[in-house]
Amino acid sequence: MNASAAEDGVGDLIAAHGMAEWQRVVSEQLMPLAIDTTSNPEFEGSVVTRRFGGVGLAVVRTGAHVAERTRRLAAAGDPHYWLGLQIVGVSTVEQAGNRSELRPGDFALYDSSMPYRREFPGDSETFVAIIPQQLIALPPRALALISALGIGPESGMGAIVSPFLTAVARNLSHLTSAQGISTVHAMIELVTSTFAEKFGVVAPHPSARHLDQVMTIRHWIMTRLADPDLNPERIAAAHFVSTRQLHVLFQEQGTTVGTWIRERRLDMARRDLEAPGESSSIRTIAHRWGFADPAYFARAFRSAYGVTPRAYRHHGASGSTAPGEK
Fold it and tell me: Which residue numbers delimit the HTH araC/xylS-type domain (predicted)?
């Protein structure tokens, strides 16, 4: 969600008529997208937004249109996951070679730092959560596969999470700040558990204690991933905590400082490797994300994704072994 959105603010309904007006509303209230309403000259849309604990929530009602996160737009801003729940109507989402049709009760995650396309062929109501990527605690190989993967409400965690998200949407305008923060924490854990179940992996269960402090530290780290000298001592000093306190904060989130940094670097390198038109060498991409030793990068990448960086570049996520397989 746009950084200008008020934290824990009471959401008012904002309506728009026509493509230009809706483009402005979406960019200001959610995130910059390229909007096409050519098929619907009488387009109308509305959105109600709230923001709790750094997570944006919105209920969006629109007529037929297409929304795209272009490569240029995806390169700007902090990386987030969009969680989209279809409430009324149907839509499609396409990203990283995956395509899902979403019907009422279905939901999917897609990545703001990569191009994606959403098509709404008719009147639609969706619930959207815009989640900082650092809060989705899944193993790297699972993160590589979740883009635009639809989850239905028929069974498993989907049968629990879909009604929960629908209830959040229906009560969004009435949430107090305290209720909103508790709701966001529960939502993130439920969604993470849903995709962990889908891929047969074990996801850590982060603590809600000190979460705001951890988010601040993680954001600081994300802006410095390219620095090969990034280490716990520097991170702790920059945030006026001891190195021991820093390790405790990350342990409460089910990980370690070193593991979290390595996984974020690998994830950003993976995205570059599969990005259309990215012609940089593998060595250059590794160095771009803080891997000074190409051999170490290759070993770490293969351990995380099951294939070498070169094979991944040629075949993308389809060239890697599914999570949980040997």
Answer: 215-315
Chain CA centroid to CA 211, Å: 17
Tell me phi and psi for residue 23, to 5 degrees.
-60, -45
Average pLDDT over residues 35-64: 94
| Residues contacting 67, CB < 8 A, separation 6+ | 26, 33, 34, 35, 36, 117, 118, 120
Which amino acid belongs to residue 165? Answer: L
Straight-line distance from the first to the last Cα atom of the chain, in angstroms, rounded to the nearest whole number: 38
CATH number of this structure's domain 13-199, picked from the four choices 2.60.120.10, 3.30.379.10, 3.30.310.10, 1.20.140.10 = 2.60.120.10
Q: How many residues does the chain have?
A: 326
Tokens of 275: 């990005």
Query: DSSP 3-state assignment of 4?
Result: coil
Query: CATH assignment of 211-318?
Result: 1.10.10.60
Cross-strand bridge partners of residue 62: 45, 124
User: What is the SS3 assignment for 291?
Assistant: coil
pLDDT at 75: 79
* Residue pointed to by tokens 């949407």: 169
Q: What is the mean pLDDT of residues 238-254?
A: 90
